[in-house]
Amino acid sequence: MQRRKFIKNTLAGFPLIFLAPSLLANSCASSEDEADDPNGKSVVVVGAGISGLAAAKKLKEKGFEVTVLEAQEKVGGRLRTNRSLGIAFDEGASWIHGINGNPITTLAQQAGMQTFETLDDSRKSYDIGGILRSNTVFDNTEAEYYNILSTLKNSGNPAQSFQAVFQNLYPDKFNNRLWKFFLSTYFTFDRGDLDKVSSVLYDEGEEFGGVEKIATNGYDTIASFLSSGLNIRLNERVSKIDYSNAKIKITHNGSISEADYVIVSVPLGVLKANKIEFLPSLPAAKQNAIQKVGMNCVNKFLLIWNTAFWDDVQYISYTPETRDKFNYFVNVKKFHPNVNALMTFAYADYARQTETMSDSQVISEIMTHLKDIYGNSIPNPLNLLRTKWQNNENSFGSYSYTAVGTEMSHFDDLAEEVNDRLFFAGEHTEADYFSTAHGAYLSGIREADKIIALL
């Protein structure tokens, strides 16, 4: 489950990695220890996801009057945990991707987030007909997959998708069921729609080293920790930001608030959908970047049974003919021994299709795969939890990616402040760590530092 596992660490990533712990210390110190005298400046943060909360917390500690406006009924944004079945089901972020130097690692410890190291090698792979695939075949294909990823961009061009280039170079692999699995779960899961991802920018971004850890008591513990002591107004949907005068006017639920500075930390999908009106209009470069950077869709499904019938491994893969369809199962029982649960996924267009399906239809499709592996006598699940990120009006997708037409400078354009008064945070504004929770967090600290530097 390593995000961008195939990307090599480069020197470009080292300074930020080394700075992360100090950034974390500055942003999470108690207000009693760090707070400066009130400076008379006010900030409204739009969105109480991890980026907005990180920015708000640091600015409050530096003496700013900070108000956070959040459209949903609780903080966290895409750090959203559903506990309705007695288990923490993270609808959005689930893993700390590389714990070494990752600011989320220390933040999670301070927030009381419990974690479990997931082992990629603890797995079994099944083909159609419930045929157990040999580890040698799986491992050799995985190695070849990474080898191809390391070179395919040399054959790509900015106008072509990864799928177009891969299919042209490797037509047999493109139609092979095991290769469909790797292109789905190893690539589309991280990067977005195979037919829309850039064939030259698919390996951009940096990664932190170390093992992968999944949250076991909820990723939203981080949001709760960061939000402590902040002035947060829930169920307040911002519809307009007028920054044409000395004071910025923010319209939310028919009311208007004013501030010296505004940080817009809503997901890229919300910006794409033009759900917030800006006066004056945003600069052309920023509008272009909003359209050009991709926003993918990954949906997650948690199923619970009375008893477990599956293999005692961390990951179970299945290779159907249809790409992106319930082909990867996380054995939740490995980190919740008393819970008989599997978590599975749908990606890209199939993920979007699931949002039109009823719970019973989803269960039927998932069970078709599990019955092919384990036999028709296995029971149906007792409960299902699911996500619908594409049609979620608070996100309109899962996270950003480098689509055809994206340039890496677009991420910087998304992060560019306007008139030293209107600022932007979120994972889509971090060129090095886009699409990750740690990228979102670091973007919030970055924008807070920009405002602090203006004093």
TrEMBL record:
It catalyses: L-tryptophan + O2 = indole-3-acetamide + CO2 + H2O. The keyword Coiled coil does not apply. It comes from the Bacteria. It holds the Pfam family Amino_oxidase. Belongs to the tryptophan 2-monooxygenase family. PANTHER family: FLAVIN MONOAMINE OXIDASE, LYSINE-SPECIFIC HISTONE DEMETHYLASE 2. It is an enzyme of class 1 (oxidoreductase). Residues 50-452 form the Amine oxidase domain. Pathway: Plant hormone metabolism; auxin biosynthesis. Its EC number is 1.13.12.3. Its cofactor is FAD. The keyword Zinc does not apply. It comes from Chryseobacterium gambrini. Keywords: Auxin biosynthesis, Oxidoreductase, Signal. This is Tryptophan 2-monooxygenase. Residues 1-25 form the signal peptide.
